[in-house]
Design goal:
single chain; alpha+beta; Beta-Lactamase; 5-stranded antiparallel β-sheet; 42% helix; globular; flavoprotein; PAS
């Protein structure tokens, strides 16, 4: 009789294997977000960014974050870049966002983005970009200049999301 109680109890506390897979994926996602946050914080601390309106921590969860230096060379790309573009972070570092552009990319929108960068003002645009495999995707970009606590421009940051 005690054996039956043991079997009954062990079934009540069992968790399907599939649940562990979801849990593992969730933990990996959290680790990636934490790693991204650590990298961005290092840049932020090094250049003493004024992070007041950036909301990086919240946005890292749902968007791809790309940080460029003043020459528009990518110095940071969050882990989501691989999912959206097919490129790993190390493949985009040191390159410019031009690497995601191609024939279907609107010249007008690019001109508007360049103008906003030149004027050092935030912008929000949707653009046709290219994945590593050559397929296109619509990318909503919310970009902004990043200033240090002395008011000097140090970087540009873009929060990007694929849209339908």
């Amino acid at each position: 009789m005690k054996r039956d109680n043991f079997d009954e109890g062990s079934h009540r506390n069992s968790v399907p294997i599939l649940a562990w897979d979801f849990h593992y994926e969730y933990l990996n996602e959290l680790k990636a977000i934490f790693s991204d946050l650590k990298k961005v914080s290092k840049i932020s601390n090094q250049f003493t960014w004024n992070e007041e309106n950036l909301q990086i921590e919240q946005r890292l969860k749902d968007e791809v974050v790309v940080v460029t230096d003043l020459d528009l060379k990518i110095v940071f790309a969050s882990n989501g870049i691989k999912r959206m573009t097919g490129y790993k972070e190390e493949e985009v570092l040191g390159k410019t966002p031009k690497m995601f552009q191609g024939p279907e990319t609107s010249k007008t929108v690019l001109k508007e983005i360049r103008e906003a960068i030149k004027l050092q003002v935030p912008f929000e645009k949707t653009i046709e970009n290219y994945r590593k495999d050559g397929r296109t995707y619509k990318c909503k970009i919310n970009g902004a200049p990043v200033f240090n606590l002395k008011g000097q421009l140090t970087h540009f940051i873009a929060f990007e999301k694929e849209v339908a």
